[in-house]
Write a structure and sequence with these properties.
By secondary structure, this protein is α+β, with helices and mostly antiparallel strands. It is 24% helix and 20% strand. It is built from four helices and eight strands, in the order H-E-E-E-E-E-E-H-E-H-H-E. Strands 1-6-5-4 form a four-stranded antiparallel sheet, with no helix packed on it. Strands 2-3 form a two-stranded antiparallel sheet. Strands 7-8 form a two-stranded antiparallel ribbon. A hairpin with an 8-residue loop joins strand 4 and strand 5. Helix 3 crosses helix 4. The longest helix is centred in the first third of the chain and has 15 residues. It is globular, with a radius of gyration of 19 Å. The termini are far apart. The N terminus is likely disordered.
Length: 155
């Protein structure tokens, strides 16, 4: 193989390896632990979510990081019996803003893609830590192994 061909092949391989598409921003279905079957999950319905609230669901297999969020501005399904939807998220570093939350999938709706940034959901870091120390079993059941209140979400 000529040196020129080797350089061209290397450049092509390197440039394609840099294009990593994540599921951040893709639609997902919100779930909760099934109260009748411990260890199992069940759908969250639209009627179970109060309007204007942020919502986070852990263990969602629709998402590579197992986290599905629904921010206060998410357009709800008008059918109260419909399964509630959100979008895939990931934990992020406080203060990283949009840089820690790059949506690479061009099929993600523009109204979500352009608004995703790193912000805290639900609790601040001190409250989350206090809950984890007070009852580690209940904490793990609710939050899994997550130790951060910061997730990529639309603002």
């Amino acid at each position: 193989m000529s040196a020129r061909l080797a350089v061209l092949l290397s450049a092509a391989l390197l440039s394609s390896a840099c294009e990593i598409t994540t599921q951040l921003g893709q639609e997902c279905l919100l779930i909760k632990q099934d109260p009748n079957n411990p260890g199992e999950s069940t759908a969250i319905l639209e009627r179970e979510i109060l309007p204007g609230q942020d919502f986070i669901s852990f263990g969602v297999t629709d998402c590579e990081d197992l986290v599905c969020v629904r921010d206060a501005n998410f357009a709800a399904d008008p059918n109260p019996d419909a399964q509630a939807k959100g979008y895939c998220s990931q934990d992020c570093v406080e203060g990283s803003g949009k840089s820690g939350c790059s949506v690479t999938d061009t099929s993600v709706a523009e109204n979500i893609r352009n608004r995703i940034t790193c912000r805290s959901l639900l609790l601040d870091q001190a409250s989350l830590e206090r809950l984890r120390q007070e009852d580690p079993v209940a904490y793990r059941r609710t939050f899994g192994e997550n130790n951060s209140p910061y997730f990529a979400r639309s603002s």
